[in-house]
Design goal:
Blueprint lengths: L1 E6 L6 E6 L5 E4 L2 H6 L2 E6 L3 E5 L4 E4 L7 E5 L5 E8 L3 E7 L8 H6 L2 E4 L17
Parallel strand pairs: 3-10
Antiparallel strand pairs: 1-2, 2-5, 3-4, 4-9, 6-7, 7-8, 8-9
Length: 132
């Protein structure tokens, strides 16, 4: 477990999160995740702390409106998403590309779990993952 610090491109939104990258990361094939090239680490919500920029955040929900995707209203960068899962309860999915102090070596060593969100199948990975 390590505390990482992240932000949007312009620095308006800043956060920190306690992440165990050895527990794995996620990539999803649903329509929004595919378009964002979403690569994240899910953490329990109590392991995520928004430091600044709550007033700059914008929220986007689609389809079931179950999960919220947050982005900076100034620069447009997606920094995290929120939701609820049977395994984690309330969670934050931290966008790995928004972490400011994540060494590339740690990112490359992190296992990746692929989610078939396009078919609402959260157990079996999709057949094709190369584009994710």
């Amino acid at each position: 477990m390590k505390t990482y610090h992240g932000s949007c491109h312009c620095g308006s939104v800043q956060y920190e999160a306690d992440i165990d990258l050895s527990a794995g990361t996620i990539k999803c094939n649903c329509s929004i995740c595919s378009k964002m090239r979403f690569w994240a680490a899910q953490v329990p919500s109590n392991a995520f702390r928004l430091i600044s920029g709550a007033d700059r955040l914008r929220e986007y929900r689609y389809l079931t409106r179950r999960d919220a995707h947050y982005f900076c209203g100034d620069c447009g960068i997606n920094t995290f998403s929120t939701g609820q899962s049977p395994a984690l309860g309330p969670f934050h999915a931290v966008v790995l590309a928004s972490l400011d102090d994540l060494p590339v070596e740690e990112l490359l060593a992190a296992p990746v779990r692929y989610l078939d969100g396009r078919n609402d199948n959260w157990v079996t990975p999709p057949h094709e993952t190369r584009h994710l």
